[in-house]
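User: I'm new to structure prediction. If I give you an amino acid sequence, what do you actually give back? Let's try with this one:
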Amino acid sequence: MPRPAEPPQTGRFRWARLWHNLGRDSVLIAPGLVISAIAVPTLVTLFAASIATVIIWVGLLLLPLTLTIARAFGSLSRARARAWGAPIAEVAARPQGQGLRGLLAPATDARAWLDLLFEAVFALPIRLLTFSVTASWFFAGLGGASFFFWGRFLPEGGGDTVDWVVAWVTDSPVTDLGFTAEATFQFAAGIVLLLSFPFVLHAMALLEIATIKAGLAPGPNGVLSPEQARTGELSAAPVEGGFTDAAAPGLEHDSRVSALLTRGDGEGWFWLLSIFVGTVLLAVSWPVTAGLYGVWTVTAMQVAIGQSASLVLAVRMPAAAIVLGVMSSAVGIYATSDSTGLVWPWTATSILALLFLHLIVGMRHSWLYLIILWGASSALGALSLFAPHAGDLSGALANVITTVSLTAGAGIIGVTGRLFISGRRQLATERELSATELAKRHELEERNRIAQELHDVVAHSMSVISVQATTAKYRLPGLDERSLGEFDSMAASSRQALTEMRGLLAILRGGRDADLAPQPTIDDIPALVDITRGSGASVDLDLPAEPVELTPTASLTAFRIVQESLSNALRHAAGAPVSVTVTASGQFLEITVINGPAEAAGPTPAAAKNPLGGGFGLRGMRERVEVLGGSLQVGPRSPGGFEVRATLPTD
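Assistant: Good question. You get back a string of structure tokens that encode the predicted 3D arrangement of the chain. For your 651 residues, that looks like this:
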């Protein structure tokens, strides 16, 4: 049946959806900080202990335990995201062997390492941000709305908030406007904060979901099919049907907000790493450049922001990242040219920025971008040696050589990593194609087996019927004209069925040389009714006087519906009158087949106890109709009998 129309976006529906989002967003945000507060110290402590004790073999036991716990925290985060409504599937753990190999199996699981990195490094800052913003917003709004009750107990002096706001707006001295003005201002501000709180909470939930999809989603696009989730494959496949508003309200907003973090194979992790490294670099480079090198604070800020932003841009826009990174380095070299006794021309933070920039460009993009970046950096370093500066030439030369060598090494590592990942991805693709081809071969073998069964059983029986009906007038002399007509009709029907059976067998066997023949259309319905009447059934036919313009598929579907309906009527209600009505109304064609109760013709056949029969004929009709976007209604009628009503689009 056609999918029912979505409910209108009424005000009541919007508020219901808003409150639904408020509940699920709160359940996502509230416990997140507590979980990270437990996960981070646990994982960091265990990982540090395992690395420190690996030399005495104790770390070999602690490291798998650490990764197992990290995998558990990652699974918990994925489960919370799924409960929120995000289409993130869980990947089954790899099967473990016996003995020492099984004990060390978590150390070879890449997913466990990624879960450890996410839960120990990225989760806490994100959840601290989302929890702090939502908690501050809510309590600020609640406090402002209730200021009238508790504001009277505040100590006097210093001026109230409304006094400072009025003084700033009117550019006048601060004056005391009284408690009423302050309470009114706080109440209005609190109401505004409370009304906007659901939207702020939902935005924070989308941010956390986007981060989880980028770092914890098992597939490249964050979505796995059920079969892949069961087998543990890391190749993603789109989920059929997707999510609707009823299943996950607000998810369409999530798809827009988190698309930046989830596009491309493994791109989410590059976004997370680049943003994290860029933020840390900004926090370190700005004070170091301004404090140690005596650079003006604004200039140091611009250099730090440019270097950090180039890392983020390198994920998707390598050309812009190269230009911004080289320009930031040039400005930094020029701003620090009068420093003595310090690392120059590239500062330590500039060297780190260049290293990460070469690494990201090498892993994400073509080697041509990497060559351009490395060549521009090397040329910039060579030019800085000829520019006036206050440092020692030998020290500057050593700095340039070291930086050029390190960036070349980082670029080589990036290219090698990209080739390795590409090779693994290509191998996975080849395996998937091989599995697909194997499945197709098994399907073809099964179709051949079914075709053989049909040929041996059904086709043989139909051939016998055709031969017996054709030779009846020779084997049974003295038949009257009516009996001869019945046998001729049986012979014609069986021959037609055999012809269609041969075509079906050719299709099932996958043969490309199957016979081509015109498919029946709506114009063949009168002939079909005449053949049915020849079996003794009473059939009334009502067709439109004017020809009906239909697509070939719709015309064939209309014929098959009438054919199956008449067949069911003859089989389950033998002797009952049947009426076939075809009506064209606007852009739709309506087909109605009604048969009376079987009792009208005598005892009810055994098959009539189940009016739907085996269900395959009606199921096929429903599939044909739904493919065309129509509707089908079948069922018994209240006066008795059975009705089939189908509606098909004419275009």
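You can read the tokens as a compact description of the fold. Here is one thing that stands out. The first strand starts at residue 539 and ends at 542.
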